[in-house]
Amino acid sequence: MAQVNQYQQDFQFLATLHAYSISELELERDMTSTLEETLRYMDISKTLDLDWTHDLLSTTCAGLSGGELALLTTRLLLTASVTKEKLQSLMQRFTLFDSVYLNMVNLGRIKTTTRERRRQGRGKHDVNAIDLIRAIVKQLTKLDNNISEMEYELRTAEKLIGEEKCRGTATPINPFEEKVQKMEQRLQQLAVKVEDTNKEPQSSK
Asked: Left if phi > 0, otherwise alpha if psi is -120 to 50, otherwise beta: which for 108?
């Protein structure tokens, strides 16, 4: 229930942002927390792409039974899909905040020099929104390609399962089990970092 209330509070905040008398400090805090979470999901996306493209897809998943291939691909597909959705929603949130920030500059509520500092990325949490959008779009494109490949492998797994049932083939030992476990551990570590960040006290809305 607490999480539901958090969702409701957050959605309400975004819906009334245009009329909300938000301060420069509050806005920068929201932008910073959103940016940090975005970059963490970028790390998850890059790790997923590296493991899938270079460690697993490069082997054509040879030696895996239909069931093993289906299990592995389903896990990765779920991670890729969730990561894609999170990156999209976080980037939409950040660009909304950036637009509000620019509007506050135009209204004289924030100094132009402060806006320029953020745009040039001089500080730790300063970023050029245009550059960030390019990076996110590039990563989302890779995720789309990964997801398409995973869906193809999943269809392949379904065919293998059908063939194995007809032949009564026993499931062989998975030669990539250790590699898969290491990959899942890396993704889990990144996911824990994101979860811990979400549990940190957020700025009041």
From this structure: left
Tens place of pLDDT for every residue, the chain, 205 residues? Answer: 555 576 777 777 777 776 667 788 888 888 889 999 999 999 999 999 988 877 665 555 556 667 777 778 888 899 999 999 999 999 999 998 888 888 888 878 777 776 666 666 555 556 788 889 999 999 999 999 999 998 988 888 888 777 777 776 545 545 445 556 666 676 677 666 666 655 655 544 4
Q: Tell me the C-alpha to C-alpha distance, in Å, between residue 101 and each of 10, 88, 116, 194, 195.
A: 18, 20, 12, 25, 27
Would you say 70 and 154 are in contact if contact means Cβ atoms under 8 Å apart? yes
How would DSSP label each residue in 58-72?
GGTTTT--HHHHHHH
- CA gyration radius, the chain: 22
- Helix (H) or strand (E) holding 170, with range, is none
For the chain, domain boundaries: 22-197
Question: Tokens 């269809």, residue?
Answer: 155
